[in-house]
UniProtKB/TrEMBL annotation:
<keyword id="KW-0808">Transferase</keyword>
<dbReference type="InterPro" id="IPR014499">
    <property type="entry name" value="DAC_DacZ"/>
</dbReference>
<keyword id="KW-0547">Nucleotide-binding</keyword>
<dbReference type="Pfam" id="PF02457">
    <property type="entry name" value="DAC"/>
</dbReference>
<dbReference type="InterPro" id="IPR003390">
    <property type="entry name" value="DNA_integrity_scan_DisA_N"/>
</dbReference>
<dbReference type="Pfam" id="PF21755">
    <property type="entry name" value="DacZ_P"/>
</dbReference>
<keyword id="KW-0548">Nucleotidyltransferase</keyword>
<dbReference type="GO" id="GO:0005524">
    <property type="term" value="F:ATP binding"/>
</dbReference>
<protein>
    <submittedName>
        <fullName>DisA bacterial checkpoint controller nucleotide-binding protein</fullName>
    </submittedName>
</protein>
<dbReference type="InterPro" id="IPR050338">
    <property type="entry name" value="DisA"/>
</dbReference>
<dbReference type="GO" id="GO:0106408">
    <property type="term" value="F:diadenylate cyclase activity"/>
</dbReference>
<feature type="domain" description="DAC">
    <location>
        <begin position="134"/>
        <end position="294"/>
    </location>
</feature>
<dbReference type="InterPro" id="IPR036888">
    <property type="entry name" value="DNA_integrity_DisA_N_sf"/>
</dbReference>
<keyword id="KW-0067">ATP-binding</keyword>
<dbReference type="GO" id="GO:0004016">
    <property type="term" value="F:adenylate cyclase activity"/>
</dbReference>
<dbReference type="InterPro" id="IPR048544">
    <property type="entry name" value="DacZ_P"/>
</dbReference>
Length: 303
């Protein structure tokens, strides 16, 4: 279904500004991939006439010309996710980039990718619905972790969770930030394959490292990543000294336990990919702050 924005969509978009103001929303988040044609998107943003975050899976996507001031852009991984998963990832990335904060109310406009039909409007409260914001106040990321590094790890983890590796499910774990404390509470299970390489050749932001990381995800143990993206180690066994205040949700085993616990005595974030379910779980300060479930079928469901 292509063509101009449907009448219902148009009317929802036109009214979204008034609704956002009435409910005290600070920003309107629009799943941009719903709209096929650039001119239509520009018209939509002009109609919304409110601070907008455009969310897209497309790598080169940018705000329509002339509207860069009103629009911020958030890129989410280009993989199949449930609608809830997409909302979580988009809000997490927006928070990592300080576009939204704890306590914010966000109006979301979404629909099915490429349909030209905005079919859903929802209001999200960053603080009650998204656990991330209740458990960590204003700062979603540790201070030493660059947003781009976190986003890269999130993408790699989501891809591994959904796609696995050569047809097989893989599980792995990334610990990012507070690397000295993380290293002091862990040891090598196997020889560290990153040992001896210059730092510029092992930065997770370098696209050339993607295959290597995915290959090494088969190694038992965790990746330890410095906040600037340098991968310090793979195959690291975590032996954290802390203890969890509350037990993890049922079904999560030793990998998730280690991921959660290492964040008790460090300020690191742990991003865990479950081999059994493909779910990506993010831990901070000993708590599961966000999980992104693997969709059952294929489909790009809008936000
Ligand atoms: N302390 C640890 N540090 C690093 N890796 C660990 C640790 N404990 C377990 N793992 C890794 O997790 C793997 C799976 O363990 P387990 O099945 O108990 O975890 P899980 O949390 O249920 O995860 P999954 O959903 O992937 O199975 C182990 O084979 C090991 O590679």
């Amino acid at each position: 279904m292509t063509g101009p924005l449907k009448i219902l969509s148009r009317s929802m978009v036109r009214h979204s500004h008034a609704i956002a103001r009435e409910v005290g929303a600070r920003v309107i988040m629009v799943h941009a991939d719903v709209i096929v044609e650039g001119g239509e998107l520009q018209a939509l943003v002009e109609d919304v006439n409110f601070r907008v975050i455009l969310v897209s899976r497309k790598a080169g996507f940018h705000a329509p010309g002339g509207l860069e001031e009103m629009c911020s852009v958030v890129h989410i991984p280009d993989i199949a996710m449930t609608r809830a998963g997409q909302v979580k990832v988009a809000t997490l990335v927006a928070a990592a980039e300080s576009l939204i904060q704890a306590g914010d109310r966000i109006l979301c406009l979404t629909g099915i990718d490429g349909s030209n039909a905005i079919d859903t409007m929802m209001v999200l409260d960053m603080g009650t619905e998204i656990e991330l914001f209740t458990s960590m106040a204003a700062d979603p990321l540790p201070k030493d972790v660059a947003p781009a590094v976190f986003e890269r790890i999130l993408t790699l983890a989501s891809e591994l969770g959904v796609e696995g590796r050569e047809g097989r499910a893989v599980g792995t774990l990334f610990v990012v930030g507070d690397h000295e404390r993380t290293l002091s509470q862990s040891h090598q299970l196997v020889f560290n394959p990153f040992h001896g390489y210059p730092e510029e050749e092992r930065n997770i932001l370098d696209p050339r490292l993607e295959e290597t990381i995915k290959e090494f995800s088969a190694i038992d143990g965790a990746f330890v990543v410095r906040g600037d993206g340098v991968v310090l180690s793979a195959g690291r066994y975590l032996a954290p000294r802390g203890k969890l205040d509350e037990p993890l949700p049922q079904g999560l085993g030793t990998r998730h336990e280690a991921a959660a616990t290492v964040t008790v005595t460090t300020s690191a974030l742990a991003v865990c990919v479950s081999q059994s379910t493909g779910t990506v779980s993010i831990f901070k300060r000993g708590r599961l702050i966000l999980d992104i479930q693997k969709p059952r079928g294929q489909g790009t469901d809008g936000l």
